[in-house]
């Protein structure tokens, strides 16, 4: 029983604690309409964090997710796509995410460069291309279908929440039901042992980065639809937040735990905490401090729990 309890992601206990606290201090916070608002807000981050899960479980990082989101936003908001089928615009945006992830993966695996340095460099290049592409003036010609994905509802349920759930199912299947997931966790736990066991470690890492780029672009589409206009700085805060959600979900850089469900719980916890802080009047610096403390405490507790188990 102790081993089972310590194996559960920190986000699960954090969510329970936050819900109890909110029930006594801000009961309206747990009302169904407000929870649906939180779901719509959490969906873009949740998809980006699911993509980050693949690389973190593989002992890597993707610090280019923020730039990928901004670039996707500039693509879908540009007036040059007026008159083209929305499906084509969406396909181009997702293809951009795939290419970015592929470039990251090739540089990390073939050149054996640091993922931190590579993805930071990629982010800078993407940002520069985005400025050139938009001329420094992001457009506002967002297709209605993208706005519907970000803002629409089916009954009370946000469309973006349903999209997030679909991506969660895909990530869960990839990580827990397919050979790829076993390879990712094996390579993350011990790359040398995985190599000697015949696991294609470099190919697995490459695929992880490609998936991260695709998921980041998908989250960028939802966030673009939610905002409704182009923005040069959209998604900048998703770098830290996506990593935080993964760590809260129990995946501490190759630990092999957490996975898709843990990351989704971590995203929900992070969004609820940040919104509670807003309700209590905490400003942005205070939120950053709390967010950093939550990540550190979750990582320490989880690691100690695994050692003790």
UniProtKB/TrEMBL annotation:
It comes from the Bacteria. The chain crosses the membrane at residues 32-51, 63-81, 87-108, 115-134, 154-175, 210-232, 238-257, 288-305. It comes from Nitratireductor arenosus. GO terms for cellular component: plasma membrane. Pfam families: BPD_transp_2. It is a multi-pass membrane protein. InterPro entries: ABC_transp_permease. This is ABC transporter permease. Signal peptide: none annotated. It is found in: Cell membrane. Keywords: Cell membrane, Membrane, Transmembrane, Transmembrane helix. Coiled coil: none annotated. One of its GO terms (molecular function) is transmembrane transporter activity.
